[in-house]
Amino acid sequence: MQEQNTTFTMPDFLPALPEMFLLGAACVVLLADLFFPGRNRGLTWLLSLVALAGTAVCVLALEVGEHGVMTFSNTFVLDQLAILMKLAVLAASATVLVYSRHYLAARDLHRGEFYTLTLFSTLGMLVIISAPHLLTLYLGLELMSLCLYALVALNRDSAVGAEAAMKYFVLGAIASGLLLYGMSIIYGVTGSLQLDEIAAFIGAQEERHLGLVLALTFVVAGLAFKLGAVPFHMWLPDVYHGAPTPVTLLIGSAPKIAGFALVFRLLVEGMEHLYVDWRDIFILMSVLSLVAGSVVAIAQTNIKRMLAYSTIGHIGFLLMGFIAGTSEGYSAALFYALVYVLMALGAFGMILLLSRKDFEADNLDDLRGLNARSPWFALVMLLVMFSMAGVPPTIGFHAKLAVLSAVVNAGFLWLAVLGVIAAIVSAFYYLRVVKLMYFDEPQDNAPLSGGIDMRVLLSSNGIAVLVLGLMPGALLTATIAAIP
Amino acid sequence: MEQVYLAIVLAPLLAAIVVGLGGSRMARAWAHRLTIAGVGISFALSLVVARDVFVLGAPVFDGAVYTWLVSDGLRLEIGFLIDSLSAVMMTVVTFVSLMVHIYTIGYMKDDPGYARFFSYISLFTFGMLMLVMANNFLQLFFGWEAVGLVSYLLIGFWFKRPTAIAANLKAFLVNRVGDLGLLLGIAAIFMYTGSLAYSEVFAAAPALVGQTTHVIGDYHWQVTTLICILLFIGAMGKSAQVPLHVWLPDSMEGPTPISALIHAATMVTAGIFLVARTSPLFELSVTALTFVLVIGAVTALFMGLLGLVQNDIKRVVAYSTLSQLGYMTVALGVSAYAAGMFHLFTHAFFKALLFLAAGSVIIAMHHVQDMRQMGGLRKYMPITYWTCLIGALALIGFPGFSGFYSKDAIIEAVSLSGIPGAGLAWWAVLLGVFITALYTFRMIFMVFHGQPRMDEHTREHLQESPWVVTLPLVLLAVPSIFIGALTMGPMLFGGLFDDAISVLPQHDVLAMLAAKGYTDAWSFLIHGLQAPAVWLAAAGVLVAWVCYVWQPHLPGVFARVLAPVYRVLDRKYWFDELYLKLFAPAGRGLGRVFWQFGDVRLIDGFLVNGTARAVGRLAGVARRAQTGFLYHYALVMITALALLMGWLLFLR
User: Fold this and answer.
1) Measured between alpha carbons, how far is B120 from B126 in angstroms, rounded to an integer?
2) Which tens digit of pLDDT belongs to each residue from A225-262?
3) Rounded to whole angstroms, how far apart are CA atoms B284 and B63?
4) B230 and B202 in contact (C-beta within 8 Å)?
5) CB neighbours of residue A8 within 10 Å
6) Is B586 on the interface with A (CB under 8 A)?
7) Could you give the 3-state DSSP secondary structure of residue B370?
């Protein structure tokens, strides 16, 4: 950690290279789209993918030591955890772009804004991931959120879309307000915006500082909104449902990793000494999320809504990793977040694949008899559903196992038992999808849409769910190495 | 040596798997080549082991080759105990099995399930070897169930025959009763000794004397008595002792080689082997020994009587098997385990011989089994006749034949025993000798002597069976004559089984017998000629001759005069009726209650579907919380925040 200098010195730009590259590339995409729109926006699409790939290359090119490097007066950090999460976010965003193109092209939604907003929101996530400082954190969060609000309203003529965007925006603003208010109290009490200094201050407190607890409550409420944990989840089903499916795919995937980063940076790195307090809130939210996620999803007929509740349930599991309060638990939560993103990409990708011009395949009935229409993609969906339900040998099993063993080791056996019960109940609606695909007659026999790029990627997505489940070692090791 | 033991067990298993899975894709000949090779290897290696144990005096091998799992002090292992007892059993099992394999080539020649049959009998050999070579009760139970399974499969081998399906179901169900007893016995052993390994259990057994427990009500059972009776219930199922004997006659629905291998020579003797193996336990409970003795005596006499009224050639032999198993059980009951094992040993040869001879007759008769349609076969099938006669003489205990030594030893042992019930048992086994001779020679005379009674077409095609059938007959006839005299000395009196069987001095009837000086084959023969048994056997043969050769109308007269007795025998003491009309409906009724109430209503209706309904209703209610109104959502968030704040700030 370097001393604060009164004289201006040039900061080390290198650790922020990926962000700077992405920023520049996003601007290039914006301009290119303006001047060369083309008929299919192939150039924009390609450039966006190149931008994400180039950013990933930058991330990979950077060398960080065991403890990471700080720069910009300690407002930016690049450590192992950040590298892993950034790569995951970039991969998820790129997958979103591949899955979405066909759907958007068929609907007159194929605008350059989708690409630039996606790129900027990805940039926001990268900033969150690298934030050791409340300002950076908030900056990244707002960049990400504002882009997402706009994306939800991408289809201007859709009433549900506009409604969803409105709800998301208003509630998101409230949540941002709560978070910001909490942060300001923290600053007021500790006199610092830098998370390690805040941690040091809290650690030095002899007694429980009520002001900090007050701040913690606001911060946690804001975080819970971003994650979609009960009771701050109300926006989630409506937004998932109302947003165009590619946007749902985006909201449902990469931001969960950013959400993990938010919680980890703020609560673990910044306020670990208030563990007992935020743990208890998390336990409450985890229990409520597990119950709501598993039970309410059963009553849904719309896949996107069903997956929204499924997300809530998964967040309940993810929180367990934090509840454990150990390195094992944090790695398990990170692992869970990564695995969840992989599964969500597969599930929403399948909806995109089944949709076509003037047809939204977002009802459960649209999955009927998928096996008769395409045995291969029925199998892919089956793997994804099994993984979401936590059936071995898919990767979802290892994710659940990791968080459950973390909470058991931390002494919360009852929570693990509740988690298992919730998993069993939720297995009902995942298996219902399988039943519809394999045992019911198809309702329409239109060929599946989607280009070869999407088919290949979606297939590898499904295979990854299985292969990683069979060989989870590498990913597990990476998550364990990422948490100091 | 471990590798040798493993090879003995695994060679038939490997052959069974290869032929069982690939049999339909390979030439027929390979089915028997592979399995015979497998069993041949086992037999050859068993001989090596037998030589090591008996000739070279190798020490007892007791070791685990594989630990399956260890749980809270319970070690579940696959291991071998190779001593005199297992060596004898291994030799018998592999030899008879080899003979039956060869014989099957001829007997099953045209059967579509050729490869399947060979696979089954090889699998059986594996199971039986696992049973007899086990060094712990778990592996014994595994082998026990494995042979039971193969027995089930083979009784129902011709699965298109309804009678075969009924018979294999019956065998399976009756054996379940016995197996439950065995399993409870093993559980009791583990409960009181904390181990399943023979050596540890037997070492801990003396400490159990005097301990009591109560099962139902206040009656205090001796622990040893309880364990032994439970184990013996298992033996009763497998060795078909009254009242669990009903499955064995019906098992004759299976192909004849199976009747010889499984239902005469090997599997049904597993119960005898079990009791002999656990002799250190049985010696501790006179009550259990008396129980064994009484059951055995009843089986020996009353099952023999049933053999008198059977007309199916295989059923005669089957009832004779029941009766002989009764003899072995009687020997166990008077602590003459060695005599029981000796009779098991000799019986395996001559009973397998009799069955295979009966099978040879059945081949010649084109699968007609009713003796009333036979007669005069002697001149058509001389080899079968002479070998069958040898088997019959051995069975009735003709002086000098192997059955004579083993059966007389049992009768002598019973007469010397002081255990309660021995007096009654003596009369039963003695009378049994007469009955045995009567029904055996009734069969011989009806099949091979007198006037031919079959139709013209069958008679024209009568001929001796091919060499693959007669060779095993001859190879089995040789030991049926000589093996008894050759092995009597060491087996009964030479302490051959001393490393495996333990007998308390006050129970040791064989030692008393030895004290009388008849310890070699010759003097035993001389002594036997002065005892009533031989003359009773002779009387039996004579009566059979009178009734079935000289005055063939006599049996009809007897049946009329003794109509009530005949009816009792013909209905087999109404055991089947008892089970079918009392136990089976009671069991089904109980099952129906559990099914209708316990499963359908309680588990399915209330627990499974009830939970699902409850969750569904909850989901229906909970989804309404999602009103869709923005201000509701905001309100929920703010309320939640306020509650959290209140909780954290004021309630802690």
Assistant:
1) 10
2) 999 998 999 999 999 999 999 999 999 999 999 999 99
3) 26
4) no
5) 6
6) no
7) strand
CA distances from A287 to A283, B167, B312 (A): 6, 57, 73
Quick one: pLDDT at residue A5? 55
Alpha carbon of B601: minimum distance to chain A alpha carbons (Å): 21
Nearest residue on chain B to A276, alpha-carbon basis = B648
> Is B156:B165 a contact under the CB 8 Å cutoff?
yes
B67 DSSP assignment? E
Q: What are phi and psi of A302, to 5 degrees?
A: -95, 130
Is A382 a residue whose pLDDT tops 90?
yes
Q: What percent of chain B has pLDDT over 70?
A: 100
Q: Does A132 touch chain B (CB under 8 A)?
A: no
Q: How far is A237 from chain B (nearest CA, A)?
A: 8
Nearest CA in chain A to B643: A217
User: Is residue B387 within 8 Å of B473, Cβ to Cβ?
Assistant: yes
Which SS3 state, helix, strand or coil, does residue B62 take? Answer: strand
With CB atoms and an 8 Å threshold, state whether A216 touches B648. Answer: yes
Q: How many CB atoms lie within 10 A of CB A155?
A: 19
| DSSP H or E run through B635 | helix B630-650
Judge whether B595 is closer than 8 Å to chain A, CB to CB: no
Q: How far apart are CA A318 and CA A323, in angstroms?
A: 9
What number of C-beta contacts closer than 8 Å exist between A and B?
75
Record the tokens describing residue B70, joined without a space: 């260890």
pLDDT grade for B497, boundaries at 50, 70 and 90: confident
CB-CB under 8 Å, A175 with B619 = no
Model's pTM, two decimal places?
0.67
Helices vs. strands in chain B: H and E counts, helices first: 29, 4
Q: A327 near A305, Cβ under 8 Å?
A: no
HEC per residue, B222-273: EHHHHHHHHHHHHHHHHCCCCCCCCHHHHHHHCCHHHHHHHHHHCHHHHHHH
B531 token code pair: 């005892």
Q: Is B651 on the interface with A (CB under 8 A)?
A: no
Q: Does B622 touch chain A (CB under 8 A)?
A: yes
Kindly report whether the peptide bond that precedes residue B552 is cis, defined as omega within 30 degrees of 0.
no
Q: Assign A3 a pLDDT band (cuts: 50, 70, 90).
A: low
What pLDDT sits at residue A444? 78
Min distance B603 CA to chain A CA atoms (Å): 17
3-state secondary structure of B620: helix
Asked if the C-beta of B633 comes within 8 angstroms of chain A's C-beta atoms, the answer is: yes
Chain B contact present for A281, CB below 8 A:
yes
Residues of B in contact with A219 (CB under 8 A): none
- Strand locations in B90-169 (E): none
**B295 vs A361, B301, B383, B403, B422, CA distance in Å?**
74, 10, 38, 21, 12
CB-based contacts of A18, cutoff 8 Å, min separation 6: A55, A56, A58, A59, A62, A86, A126
Q: Would you say residue B73 has pLDDT above 80?
A: no
B590 touches chain A (CB under 8 A): no
Cβ of A424: how many Cβ atoms within 10 Å?
Answer: 13
Cα–Cα distance between B325 and B303 in angstroms, integer? 10
- Sort out which chain A residues have CB atoms less than 8 A from B607's CB and list them: none
Whether the CB-CB separation of A312 and A229 falls below 8 Å is answered with: yes
B637 → closest Cβ in A166, A171, A298: A171
Q: Is A211 on the interface with B (CB under 8 A)?
A: no
Gap between the Cα atoms of B171 and B247, Å rounded: 5
Q: How far apart are the first and last CA of chain A?
A: 17
